[in-house]
């Protein structure tokens, strides 16, 4: 299991921090298809957060197609691969982010360079 670190001073909700760290763990291959996640109680105790917060993160990860949850095995990395859906969601997320960037005079070249840098960090430079 990858190391989870929560920033209690962040404005980002704790369940969102947890979700995002797990998603980044999948993207960077620290977590693989079939890997079990800690139990809700175990992760809550380890990180020092409420069990309901972990439960919310796991439930949302399940809804978004990153994990499956079953009574015996708990939460397990199980990716729902739907590229069309993923591209649609990406477009929706980028639309507002790019609008905000344009308001702050960020150029197309700067956006492309940043996207390439982030993408490469997840793929090790492989396309």
Report what the structure shows.
- The structure is a single chain.
- The chain folds into two domains: 14-77, Winged helix-like DNA-binding domain superfamily/Winged helix DNA-binding domain (Arc Repressor Mutant, subunit A, Orthogonal Bundle); 83-123, no CATH class.
- The model has no long low-confidence stretch (mean pLDDT 92).
- Helix 1 crosses helix 3 and helix 2 packs across helix 3.
- A two-stranded antiparallel sheet has the order 1-2.
- A hairpin with a 3-residue loop joins strand 1 (67-70) and strand 2.
- The radius of gyration is 16 Å and the shape is globular.
- It has five helices and two strands; from the N terminus they run H-H-H-E-E-H-H.
- Helix content is 57%, strand content 6%.
- The protein is mainly α and 127 residues long.
Keywords:
two-stranded antiparallel sheet; Arc Repressor Mutant, subunit A; 127 residues; mainly alpha
* CATH topology-level fold name of the largest domain: Arc Repressor Mutant, subunit A
Give the end-to-end Cα distance, rounded to a whole number of Å: 26 Å
Based on the structure given, which CATH architecture of the largest domain is correct? Answer: Orthogonal Bundle
> What do we call the CATH homologous superfamily of the largest domain?
Winged helix-like DNA-binding domain superfamily/Winged helix DNA-binding domain
Average pLDDT reading? 92
Number of domains: 2
- Please provide the count of β strands: 2
Extract low-pLDDT stretches.
none
Class of the largest domain in CATH?
A: Mainly Alpha
Give the % helix. Answer: 55-70%
| Shape designation | globular
Major sheet: arrangement of strands: 1-2
Helix and strand content put the structural class at mainly alpha
Question: Approximately how much beta-strand content do the residues carry?
Answer: 5-15%
Rg result: 16 Å
Number of helices: 5
Order of helices and strands: HHHEEHH
